[in-house]
Specification:
By secondary structure, the protein is α/β, with parallel strands linked by helices. Helix content is 38%, strand content 26%. The protein has a domain at 2-84 and 150-229: P-loop containing nucleotide triphosphate hydrolases (Rossmann fold, 3-Layer(aba) Sandwich). 41% of the residues are buried. The structure holds adenosine-5'-triphosphate.
């Protein structure tokens, strides 16, 4: 579905990504693990075309370099960025509907809104409440829901669990797994290695802008380096 080859991004003289290669199959759940500053957010921004990059970036056989960020959404790639980027003074419902701004299929949009409410029932209860009054975890649910309202075939999630209480975190990861089971491929940047290894099919480890290790979750969960550096065991 997505083929990335020798992808590089620089901010002025600082190299944030260097020759990164990875692939994501249709419907697959891939996680990118790595410490602060490793380049995870930069990678997701490059894919959604929010950040210029060089190298191969192909989605279903077509180069994404030819498209602007808003056109990439139309191709079926929706990005749920770090820090959520919600409109705090708008209601939950209005924030969710902003994710569907390119769509003209009103009935399908309503069906997707129902899907978001079934994944996150609290959002239905709070539909008319302004987002600034929600908890951090609830705001993260709005951000994921808004990305889903774009009807993605590939959902990019940037650290969905950061700063969120444990119980809500489990709920959010459970919802993400259900989104994948519904047929949407997921690329998730995450620092919580334990959770990523539990729910993703495959993992890439990004360190200093380069792919260090890669493998299935089972393979990396048994890897001594990963156990020591990311799970604190072994
Ligand atoms: P975190 O988990 O802390 O969000 P990350 O793995 O997502 O980290 P990035 O945000 O992609 O990492 O940053 C990669 C590198 O690029 C870092 O050294 C960062 O300081 C730098 N960087 C990111 N954005 C910019 C920018 N707009 N201008 C200059 N440097 C940047």
């Amino acid at each position: 579905m997505l083929e990335i080859g020798k992808l590089s991004v620089s901010y002025g003289k600082a190299v944030a990504l260097e020759d990164v290669s990875m692939r994501i199959g249709e419907g697959e759940f891939v996680a990118v693990l790595g410490p602060n500053g490793a380049g995870k957010s930069t990678l997701l921004k490059a894919i959604s075309r929010a950040q210029p990059s060089s190298g191969r970036l192909e989605f279903r056989g077509e180069s994404l370099h030819r498209f602007a960020a808003h056109e990439v959404v139309g191709k079926g790639i929706c990005h749920c960025p770090e820090g959520r980027r919600l409109f705090p003074e708008l209601t939950v419902l209005k924030n969710l509907m902003l994710g569907a701004y390119l769509r003209r299929d009103a009935q399908a949009v309503q069906a997707d809104l129902d899907l978001v409410y079934s994944l996150f029932p609290i959002l239905k209860e709070r539909a008319l409440q302004v987002v600034s009054t929600l908890s951090g975890g609830q705001q993260q649910m709005v951000a994921i829901g808004r990305a889903l309202m774009g009807k993605p075939s590939l959902l990019l999630l940037d650290e969905p669990s950061v700063g969120i209480a444990h119980r809500l975190k489990l709920e959010i990861f459970d919802a993400i797994k259900r989104i994948q089971r519904g047929g949407t491929a997921i690329l998730m940047a995450e620092q919580d290695a334990q959770s990523a290894l539990r729910i993703a099919d495959r993992i890439y480890v990004l360190e200093h802008g380069k792919v260090g290790r890669e493998g299935t979750s089972a393979e990396l969960g048994a890897d001594d380096y990963i156990r020591q550096a990311y799970l604190g065991v072994g």
